[in-house]
Structure formats: structure tokens, C-alpha cells
């Protein structure tokens, strides 16, 4: 049985899934972070996260197939221990987070991410790989809470001076790893259940179209303009979520 969402909620969900797919395809990578905050405008943040995870795993299959072999294997392996740590912390803290608390955290994270993407500094030299563990731990935690692992991952990988292709491929494989790690805890906590699974199954074609479009758009659309539009959207959504949480 499908969740009893309003038409507006379903439209936001469909758009969010499509945007995530486009990001998974490598276009405007990381902006799938907008999906859960956008969906949280209409449904519970935990419901949004649970509905999206199976779709993320489906997208990961498409995306990893397209980018496999182009990633930096050493960087991915450096992330794995921290991803387990972050997901474990998220699992243990899950019961102590209220819906309004999650909404507030999502709003703040969205505003911070938008500010970071707008003002991100250019590193003069690559940072040490020793930062991989703390960055991956934060990535695992924020990914568990709201599938928002991109900000801490980008903060570490961008100064590592990878080529654009290697950067996208490394992010793609790392996202697949953390999403796989999250599946067990999500099922155990009931975030992924039969109701959410039916909704996820219904949205698989949207996810597939998004990934394919993301692959196609890379060399055909002004990515800088797209970045700016999504940054603005993320900032506005974040402010809205913070307002909903405190009002």
C-alpha cells in the first residue's frame, strides 16, 4: 500500500528523486543533498529519508556502472572506516532526535551547505590524507540523518586536487558504499518498511531517468548556472525548514 501523501507532497518527492538522479549521473554532483530537505517541506524527514534510500541504491547501481574504474581506490578505502563510525553514531542517536529536531538540523545543514558551495575556498595545496577519517565520519553521520554526505566529502576531496572525472567517480563509489552500510540500520529502525518500499519501487523509473539525464547533461548544459540555481533553492529550503522547526 502506498503512503497517503498529498499531491503537493508527491510532486516534491518526484522532483527530489529526479534531482538526486541527475546528481548521481555526475551533473552538479552533491546537490542530491537538497532532496530530503525539499521532501521534508511536505512529509516527515525520517519518512523522506526512508523512502529515498532504496532509490539511492538503485541509482548507485546505474552510476557506479558508468563511473567504475575511474575512481581513486585509495581515497575510497580511506573513507570506509569513518563511514562505519558515522553511520553507527547516527543509528545510536536516532531515537533521541525529534521530528522538529531533525527538521531544524536539516535546515541548518542546508543553509551551511549553500553558504559553503557559494564561498568555498580554493586550497593552495592538497590537504593530508589524515583528514579522511574525520571527514568520512561526519559524512557517514550526515548521510545517515538526511543522505547529506556531500558537504564533508567535498570539503576533503576538493583540496585533494583530483581531476574532475576522478572526483566524480570517487564520490559516486563512496556514496554507494555508505548507502549500502545504511540499509541494515534503516531496516532495523523501521525507516525502510513495506509502505516506503512500494513508494520507492514506483519511483524507480524517475530515478533511472534522472541518472541518464545527469550523464547526458554534463557536456551540454551550463553547470555553473545550474549550481547557482540549486544553491539558491537549498538556501531558501533551509530557511523554510528552520522556520517550521522553531515556529
UniProtKB/TrEMBL annotation:
Kindly give the Pfam families that the UniProt entry links to this protein.
TauE (PF01925)
Q: Which domain of life is it from?
A: Bacteria
Q: What membrane topology does the annotation report for this chain? A: Multi-pass membrane protein
* Protein localization: Cell membrane
Q: Does the keyword Ribosomal protein apply?
A: no
What InterPro entries is this protein classified in?
A: TM_pro_TauE-like (IPR002781), TSUP (IPR052017)
- Keyword RNA-binding recorded: no
Q: Where are the transmembrane segments?
A: 7-27, 39-64, 76-95, 101-119, 131-150, 195-213, 225-246
Q: Which UniProt keywords apply?
A: Cell membrane, Membrane, Transmembrane, Transmembrane helix, Transport
Name the protein family: Belongs to the 4-toluene sulfonate uptake permease (TSUP) (TC 2.A.102) family.
Put simply, this protein is called Probable membrane transporter protein
Q: Which species is listed as the source?
A: Vreelandella lionensis
Q: What is the lineage of its organism?
A: Bacteria, Pseudomonadati, Pseudomonadota, Gammaproteobacteria, Oceanospirillales
Amino acid at each position: 500500500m502506498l503512503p497517503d501523501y498529498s499531491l503537493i507532497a508527491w510532486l516534491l518527492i518526484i522532483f527530489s528523486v529526479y534531482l538526486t538522479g541527475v546528481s548521481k549521473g555526475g551533473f552538479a554532483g552533491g546537490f542530491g543533498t537538497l532532496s530530503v530537505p525539499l521532501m521534508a517541506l511536505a512529509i516527515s524527514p525520517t519518512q523522506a529519508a526512508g523512502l529515498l534510500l532504496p532509490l539511492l541504491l538503485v541509482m548507485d547501481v546505474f552510476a557506479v556502472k558508468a563511473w567504475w574504474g575511474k575512481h581513486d581506490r585509495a581515497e575510497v578505502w580511506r573513507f570506509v572506516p569513518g563511514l562505519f563510525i558515522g553511520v553507527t553514531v547516527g543509528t545510536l542517536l536516532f531515537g533521541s532526535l525529534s521530528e522538529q529536531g531533525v527538521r531544524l538540523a536539516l535546515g541548518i545543514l542546508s543553509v551551511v551547505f549553500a553558504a559553503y558551495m557559494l564561498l568555498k575556498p580554493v586550497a593552495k595545496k592538497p590537504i593530508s590524507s589524515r583528514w579522511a577519517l574525520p571527514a568520512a565520519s561526519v559524512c557517514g553521520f550526515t548521510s545517515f540523518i538526511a543522505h547529506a554526505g556531500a558537504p564533508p566529502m567535498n570539503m576533503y576531496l576538493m583540496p585533494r586536487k583530483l581531476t574532475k572525472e576522478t572526483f566524480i567517480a570517487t564520490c559516486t563509489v563512496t556514496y554507494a558504499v555508505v548507502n549500502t552500510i545504511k540499509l541494515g540500520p534503516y531496516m532495523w529502525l523501521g525507516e525502510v518498511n513495506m509502505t516506503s518500499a512500494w513508494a520507492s519501487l514506483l519511483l524507480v523509473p524517475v530515478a533511472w531517468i534522472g541518472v541518464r539525464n545527469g550523464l547526458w547533461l554534463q557536456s551540454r548544459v551550463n553547470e555553473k548556472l545550474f549550481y547557482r540555481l540549486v544553491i539558491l533553492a537549498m538556501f531558501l529550503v533551509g530557511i523554510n525548514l528552520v522556520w517550521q522547526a522553531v515556529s
